[in-house]
Amino acid sequence: MDFEKIITELELGKPLSKIAKEMKVDLSTIYKKMRNDKDLQERVRRARETGCFTIIDKINEELETPVDNQQMMWMREKLHQARWLASKLASGVFGEKSKQEIKTDNKISISWGKPSNEISKAIEKTNN
Asked: What is the number of structural domains in the chain?
């Protein structure tokens, strides 16, 4: 199985299911190889992310050419799908949520000692 070709095709925006069909390879075989090889898994993930950029570029090119109303509806659906796909696969670039880092001070100080007069009086009042 030629994984270099698979990576290249993914970067060009082609779905993995279509690549597997063209190569006459069962998709589950590809997934099994990926499960057993973390490096391959990461390369496929990065290739899919790059493929999102390619898909968006292709759609932008298509949008430059005037089309009739029916084709415009189809184009709008493709654009909507590409945006959704990009928000999931390349969320670091196209994600809608912003990441915020929240720092909190969780220090607790415990000490033993003789309570001050005001605290002693308050404790005595509650005990009586």
From this structure: 1
